[in-house]
Amino acid sequence: MREWNGSVAFITGGGQGIGLGIARALAKRGVRLALADIDEAALARSKEELSSVTDVEVFRLDVRDREGFATAADEAEARLGPVDLLFNNAGIAPASALPDLTYEKWDLVLDINVVGVVNGLQTFLPRMIERGKGGYIVNTASGAGLVGHANVLYTTSKYAVVGLSEALRQPAEKHGIDVSVLCPAYVATGILEHTDGLLGSQTVHKGQTRKQAEGNLQSGVTIDSAGESVIAGMEAKAMWIHTDGSMKPYVRMRMEALLDSIPS
C-alpha cells in the first residue's frame, strides 16, 4: 500500500469535475493539496470544502501559461512542501464539424489538452528527478484516447496524451517516478459548460449532438467514484486507469482489428 499521508499533490483542473473528485479522494488520505484551475469561483468552493480535511492552496492557472505554471509550482512547494504527486487533469471537450475546422481550433485544443500536459510535466519532472525521492504522475486522457471517435479534435488530443504517458512510463521508472494515464468513460461533470465558457461558440457541441453528449455524461459515474478509481489504479501502479468497464468491448474490437491487419 502506498503511504499517502504527508504527500503533496498538484492537480490541474482541480477546482471541479474529475480533478475535484481526485482531490477529495486524496484529502481523505491525508495528502496536502495544491489545486490549480482557470475558474476562480470553482477554486474558492473547493478550498472551502476541503480545507476542513487537509491543507489546501489554490492557484488560478491557465495550463497554456508556462511562466504561470512555474510560479504556481514555486508557491505551492513553498507553502505545502515538495510536490510528489502530479495530476495533469485540466482539459476541454471540444467538437467541430470537418468543414468548420481551422488552424485556430486545432491550436486551441492541442494547446490546452496536450501542451497543457507537457507544461505540467516539464514544470515538475525536473524537480522530482533532482530531489531523487520518486513520485507519481497521472495524466488525464479519455476512453476516446484508446478507441477512435468521430470527434476528431478531441480524439486526436486524447490519443496524444495516452501515447505520451505510455512513452514516459519506462524512463520515469528509472528515477522512481510512476506514471499512469486516466482514460475515463462517461463521468458526470460540467465539462461541456466549462468548455463553452472558455471557448464561446468556437468549438463546442451543438444541437442534438450537444443533447446526446450531455445525456451521456450525466449517465456516467460520479466524480467521487472516478477519484477512487484513480487511487485504486495508483495503488496497483496501473498503466491505464479506467472509471468503469464500458470501454472494454470497443478496445477489444480495436485490438483484434489491429492484430488482424498485421501480416503473419
CATH topology group:
Rossmann fold
- CATH class membership: Alpha Beta
Q: Can you name the CATH architecture?
A: 3-Layer(aba) Sandwich
The chain-level structural class is alpha/beta
Mean pLDDT: 92
Tally of helical runs? 9
Rg from Cα = 18 Å
Helix content: 40-55%
How do the SSEs run, as a string of H and E?
EHEHEHEHEHEHHHEH
Strand content: 5-15%
Q: How does the major sheet shape up?
A: 7 strands, parallel
Spatial sequence of strands, sheet with the most strands:
3-2-1-4-5-6-7
Report the uncertain regions. none
Head-to-tail CA distance between termini: 42 Å
Compute the number of strand runs. 7
Mind telling me the CATH superfamily name? NAD(P)-binding Rossmann-like Domain
Mass-distribution shape: globular
GO molecular function: oxidoreductase activity
Domain Ketoreductase: 7-194
Pfam families: adh_short
Family: Belongs to the short-chain dehydrogenases/reductases (SDR) family.
Provide a descriptive summary of the structure in words.
Residues 7-194 form the Ketoreductase domain. Belongs to the short-chain dehydrogenases/reductases (SDR) family. This is NADP-dependent 3-hydroxy acid dehydrogenase YdfG. This protein is 52% helix and 13% strand. α1 links the parallel β1 (8-12) and β2 (32-37). It has a single domain (8-261), classed as NAD(P)-binding Rossmann-like Domain (Rossmann fold). α1 crosses α8, α3 (66-80) packs parallel to α4 and α4 (103-131) runs parallel beside α5. The longest helix is centred in the middle third of the chain and has 29 residues, at 103-131. It has 264 residues and is α/β, with parallel strands linked by helices. The chain has helices at 17-27, 40-50, 66-80, 103-131, 152-173, 191-199, 207-218, 223-235, 248-261, and strands at residues 8-12, 32-37, 56-60, 85-88, 135-140, 177-182, 240-241.
